[in-house]
Please model this.
Amino acid sequence: MKMPIYMDHNATTPVDPGVLEAMLPCFSEHFGNAASRTNPYGWVASKLVEQARSALATGIGGHPEEMVFTSGATESNNLAIKGLALALKGRREHLVTCATEHKAVLDPCAALTREGYATTVLPVDGRGCLDLVRLTDALTPGTALVSIMLANNETGTLHPIAKIAEICRERGVVLHCDATQAVGKVAVDVNELGVDLMSFSAHKIYGPKGVGALFVRRRKPRLHLVPLLDGGGHEQGMRSGTLNVPGAVGFARALEIALARMPAESARLATLRDRLEHAVTSRLEAVTVNGDAEHRLPNTVNVSFAGVDGAALLVGLEEVAVASGSACTSADPRPSHVLMAMGRSKELANASIRFSLGHGNTTEEVDVVADAVVREVMRLRTNSPLWRK
Ligand SMILES: *Cc1c(COP(=O)(O)O)cnc(C)c1O
Model:
């Protein structure tokens, strides 16, 4: 089977060879339990984990003591949101988030709502942007947490987190940010952003699957999180469970590599993205680019094709591996909640494709994919009753 061109890097990325190389000794040679204080196997493993923790902290401008290793951004988001909400139970039981957040943020908020918490889900405009006045108005003395992502995984739209942090700080509200898509693509510094809690994940930055981190700011009064898992009290009691040593080492190496190549790579990807976007929008009518043209990730372009059946388009586009806003391609049988929140119709959301470019992609690949998209959209429109001109 000939594999299609991979343009789904916002879903996951291949492990970088340098990451794999750093991880390999941790499986069989340095296999110790990092919590075993009684023997040198444990000491070596512990040293590797602490080096990884330092490297990750440095990469995001934090302190090693502020890093909690998790199984990925889903767990980091759950720990941040549920952990903080449960810690403030009876005192502050209101959460604020946004309609375009990842399900790993929306669903923990919904779970807490079922437990009696209140959640305000802020709307977005047609570009996926928040109204900061509305956000400010949503905050009450009972607000425990605001959770807003830095970069949207479907459209690449960037939220002004530093401004949001200022609003939260003035009102004594904790800010959590899901920065999973932003890390390694745009500058991410926890102090410049002013976030209190921040989630990110290794497998979105050419690291291994199954490892992530939550940044927990050291501040006064201390941020207390009720752990999701009870057990050996690892990670300052916030995340029990034997540490994933190869994962931690690979995650740290992945971040170092991503940051070292970010300036050149982000510029290269933005050029490729613009080339793809231009090719599709200049050669086809009735194409909508979803997202904020100015504040957007360099690697992401999400496009809706009016008058086309989304499922048929994906079937026709066998040259490329992409994601769609369509109900038919995901485990969830509804059209993209992100595109719907941006005011797209069900039909248009279904006829949307997200191209997320990455390190392996070339100009030649972009041209092949653009030709295929133009060909398929024209072919489907010719045969479509949805397309009346
Ligand atoms: C991928 C992703 C997640 C989930 O991360 P995992 O490490 O796979 O659990 C959460 N939020 C965003 C924005 C993502 O893109």
About this structure: The chain has a mean pLDDT of 95. Residues 72-74, 102, 104, 149, 153, 178, 180-181, 201, 203-204, 212 surround pyridoxal-5'-phosphate (CB under 6 Å).
